[in-house]
From TrEMBL:
Belongs to the class-I pyridoxal-phosphate-dependent aminotransferase family. It comes from Natrarchaeobius halalkaliphilus. The keyword DNA-binding does not apply. Its cofactor is pyridoxal 5'-phosphate. The lineage of its organism: Archaea, Methanobacteriati, Methanobacteriota, Stenosarchaea group, Halobacteria. InterPro entries: Aminotransferase_I/II_large, AspAT/PAT-like, PyrdxlP-dep_Trfase, PyrdxlP-dep_Trfase_major, PyrdxlP-dep_Trfase_small. Gene3D superfamilies: Aspartate Aminotransferase, domain 1 (3.90.1150.10), Type I PLP-dependent aspartate aminotransferase-like (Major domain) (3.40.640.10). It comes from the Archaea. Homodimer. Keywords: Aminotransferase, Pyridoxal phosphate, Transferase. Signal peptide: none annotated. This is Pyridoxal phosphate-dependent aminotransferase.
Length: 373
């Protein structure tokens, strides 16, 4: 008789969904994991032109159109001074598929995958789906990932360690010194560093740096996407870049599971990457203003919260019963333990919502906090 595989039996549906389902219809949603801005017009036009010119009715190359991969290579040159061969990139169905490809191609049964806890929900689940063993590591007090903690967690069984900066759910940004350390660890221990950079452009001070800039081996692969930078989560377009031999292995999975990323989305992504970047700057400036409003509100409510430097999340420490009290008052926040055991006692607040709604929610949060303190 057919049973379910032990891999899927170990994975449960994300705790984030459960919160959404439990909330009332008029709730203010601070649980959102996507920008609330429109996709830039020139990106949409890229897809429209491709559709009108009949360029979307066929599979593209498995790796994606050459012109998109050139746009991706140009982006890494422009932003990081990195020379990437367009052949060493695969366009994927969002950053999510790219994470899956990296783990499927590099993890053998029982091998360990180290990732931040609290961290993005997919790292644990995709590790289990790849038949690997999740190895969550706790964060520093400021919610960044300590390279020393990663180094201490490495064993002979470690296949991959994940770095995510700017991070979901914390908004924390790793320093350049940390990124250099992650590259050193990948090189020295001969372990793959998976750098999840989907929030790379949503940084408020300084620039995001990638371990790919500092590694002297091919032990760093980078995953990114149009999803957050260009407010294109619905388009489902991301990518992975890495060395030729790693891309070739990942392509074996992608080719059979996906064939190619959606063609209209690829043309939109190419237009997004090669067109004007002002919409990104405007969105990031708006996120920074909102972050400050949220930080002020949370501090006024008496909550302790490290200042996040990126993404669009803050993660305050909260007293017991706080999330329930806030949810009861129809403000959706995500309990920190949805992101790993060490998230217990925290909550993730997303500010991908207009300032007026944020201010309304912060008043409710103030009352709710007073009620549980
Ligand atoms: C840290 C992180 N990585 C990857 C993803 C997946 O992004 P995509 O929508 O491109 O699949 C997300 C989405 O929330 C994320 O927060």
């Amino acid at each position: 008789m057919t049973e379910f595989s032990h891999r899927v039996e170990q994975v449960s549906i994300s705790g984030i969904r459960k919160v959404f389902e439990a909330a009332g219809e008029d709730a203010i949603n601070l649980g959102i994991g996507q920008p609330d801005f429109p996709t830039p017009e020139h990106a949409c036009q890229g897809a429209i032109d491709a559709i009108e010119n009949g360029r979307t009715d066929a599979y593209t190359s498995n790796k994606g159109t050459h012109s998109l991969r050139e746009a991706i290579a140009t982006k890494y040159d422009r932003e990081y001074g990195l020379e990437i061969d367009p052949e060493d990139a695969i366009a994927t169905s969002g950053g999510s598929e790219a994470l899956h490809l990296v783990l499927e191609a590099h993890v053998d049964p029982g091998q360990e995958v180290i990732f931040p806890d609290p961290g993005f929900v997919s790292y644990d689940a995709l590790t289990r789906i790849a038949d690997g063993t999740p190895k969550p590591v706790s964060l520093r007090e400021d919610l960044t990932l300590d390279p020393a903690a990663v180094e201490a967690a490495i064993t002979d069984e470690t296949a991959v360690f994940v770095v995510n900066s700017p991070a979901n759910p914390t908004g924390a940004v790793q320093s350049e010194a940390d990124m250099r350390e992650f590259a050193r660890i990948a090189d020295e221990y001969d372990v793959l560093c998976l750098s999840d950079e989907v929030y790379e452009h949503i940084v408020f001070e300084g620039d995001h740096r990638s371990p790919l800039e500092f590694s002297r081996t091919d032990n760093v692969v980078v995953v990114s996407a149009c999803s957050k930078t260009y407010s294109m989560t619905g388009w489902r377009l991301g990518w992975v870049v890495g060395s030729t031999r790693r891309i070739e292995r990942m392509l074996r999975v992608h080719q059979y599971a996906q064939a190619c990323a959606s063609a209209p989305a690829q043309y939109a992504a190419e237009a997004a990457l090669t067109g004007p970047q002002e919409p990104v700057d405007e969105m990031v400036a708006a996120f920074e203003r909102r972050r400050d409003v949220v930080l002020d509100g949370l501090e006024d409510a008496g909550l302790e919260v490290p200042t996040p430097q990126g993404a669009f999340y803050v993660m305050p420490k909260v007293p017991e019963g706080w999330c329930e009290e806030v949810l009861d008052r129809d403000v959706i926040v995500v309990p920190g333990d949805a992101f790993g055991a060490n998230g217990e006692g925290y909550a993730r607040i997303s500010y991908a919502t207009g300032i007026a709604e944020l201010k309304g929610a912060l008043e409710i949060i103030d009352d709710a906090t007073a009620a549980v303190k």
